[in-house]
Amino acid sequence: xxxxxxxxxxxxxxxxxxxxxxxxxxxxDVIVLEGSDHIxxxxxxxxxxxxxxxxxxxxxxxxxxxxxxxLWPTLSEELEVDCEYHQDGNLRLGKTEKHRDILTxxxxxxxxxxxxVRMIDGDEVRAINPYLSxxxxxxxxCPTDGHANPLTTTLGFYKMARRLGVTxxxxxxxxxxxxxxxxxxxxxxxxxxxxxxxxxxxxxxxxREILTSVGIDIPMTKxxxxxxxxxxxxxxxDQMLGTAEADFYGHQTKHGSFVFGGSSGLERYNKDNGTxxxxxxxxxxxxxxxxxxxxxLAKAKIVRTWAGWMDASxxxxxxxxxxxxxxxxxxxxxxxxxxxxxxPAVGEQLAKLIVTGKTDVDLSELHYDRYKAKI
Amino acid sequence: xxxxxxxxxxxxxxVPGPDDDMLICRCEEITKGEIRKAVxxxxxxxxxxxxxxxxxxxxxxxxxxxxxxxxxxxxELGISPSELEPAASRVPMRPIEMxxxxxxxxxxxxxx
Lengths: 375, 112
Hints:
Low-confidence stretches of chain A: none
Oligomer: heterodimer
Number of strands of chain A: 18
CATH superfamily of the largest domain in chain A: FAD/NAD(P)-binding domain
CATH class of chain B: Mainly Alpha
Distance between the termini of chain B: 49 Å
Strand order of the largest sheet of chain B: 2-3
CATH topology of chain B: Arc Repressor Mutant, subunit A
Shape of chain B: elongated
Radius of gyration of chain B: 18 Å
CATH superfamily of chain B: BFD-like [2Fe-2S]-binding domain
CATH architecture of chain B: Orthogonal Bundle
CATH architecture of the largest domain in chain A: 3-Layer(bba) Sandwich
Structural class of chain A: alpha/beta
Number of domains of chain A: 3
Strand content of chain B: 5-15%
Number of domains of chain B: 1
Distance between the termini of chain A: 51 Å
Mean pLDDT of chain A: 96
Order of helices and strands of chain A: EHEHEHHEHEHEEHEEEEHEEEEHEEEH
Helix content of chain B: 25-40%
Structural class of chain B: mainly alpha
Number of helices of chain A: 10
Low-confidence stretches of chain B: none
């Protein structure tokens, strides 16, 4: 089995797979190590599928806007898989004046960063999506947002990277990194020691413990999100939906089913036994929320629910880029539950960073060492 | 399971079969040929096959086809079906209408 490569990537999620794909396209020799038995088994397969710019922090906006302009439109052809990408806009819904304030603030700051997003009132919302109830009084509207299928996109990156010669090894849970002669060199699992000139840690929540072995600490904590999916329904709408308080989001898929994500508010105190499990309270709570927004969906049948952890940082944006203290080491983690839409851009830019030392989009605001105390 | 699985191991080329058009997952209409091709695209676990093709994601949630899919994938990989972990079963066991599922807290509703 191959144990040395130019680049070793820790984490076989969409970030690891997309970086591996873009590196392989540039002729780089790559090994990807996935800790679980399945490629893309964390947030990559458990998210709600948003490919969204609106509602994001301005520090990560340039990167996601770059991806939506340059990568997403041709991704299905490039990966030879149907990513089910739809660019039909995002409605971020508000029901109260407080919601209107939140949405207006988000829209203003995003416009300042060059994004086309504006506030619309309830009637305009229902002109775009006639199925929404009268409880919705306003929304932010971003016509260039959309959604895609996280499962086929993640596995599409994997398939193409593998086809280009990238070695993927699952069931290899990385415990430790090792620096040799002042440079990153070894990646150690209970079974094997891998070696590379460069190492990218893109292991979601587990990145923290792995990076601790070389003295780097990226502050993040886990937070549970739950999703549910309905049986196939007649076609209703193509927009991505969210809410002011980010408590509910979703879309109708190509297959016809609706995927909705949400929370019960009790997540921080749930019993989880070490795996992200669906709680009995959450799916009914999401259903009550959905029926208030979409009365027509009351009879739609839920066929499946699932849960996943997001890697949450204190300021809600990822840590991305080169680790200054350790030559050859790169990080990409703490995507805070919205890593899917931004993933192709992250992979492409990280690949460029590793090969050329430069990126097209400035990543300095996402530096891992930005966390400062409040006073 | 969590055992080391090198996805570059040679499983030989995809050879078309006479029964590749046979429907295996009836709910999502996935054929034997599609499942066999997915294995050659690198989908080596039942969870990956499901996420890639939607086998077992329809109304019956795999209660009809999961054993068939397991046999096909194992044969393509040249391993015993017992070496493949089943994909996770998800709540609810049977499809439930949203308004019924939503009704889990009847006491609160009476007050409205």
